[in-house]
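Hi U.,

Before I forget, here's the chain from the pilot set. I'm dumping it here mostly so it's searchable later in email.
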Amino acid sequence: MQQFLELGSPKHLLAALRILPLIITVVLLAPAWFFWIFLPEGRQKRVIDLVKQLIEWTRATRDESPSS
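Structure:
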């Protein structure tokens, strides 16, 4: 029972809220991945640049998180 209570702790909720924008972005990019071969080269480059920025943002937020 205590394990379930720990899942609802503020520390875990803040971690979940931090990755929520990433999850939403990945879901919204799904059509771009499904139709990747039909995208013009310029749009493919923009999608790749966006993914690189998401990777950098994710690494930055991981570095900022306090050590447990």
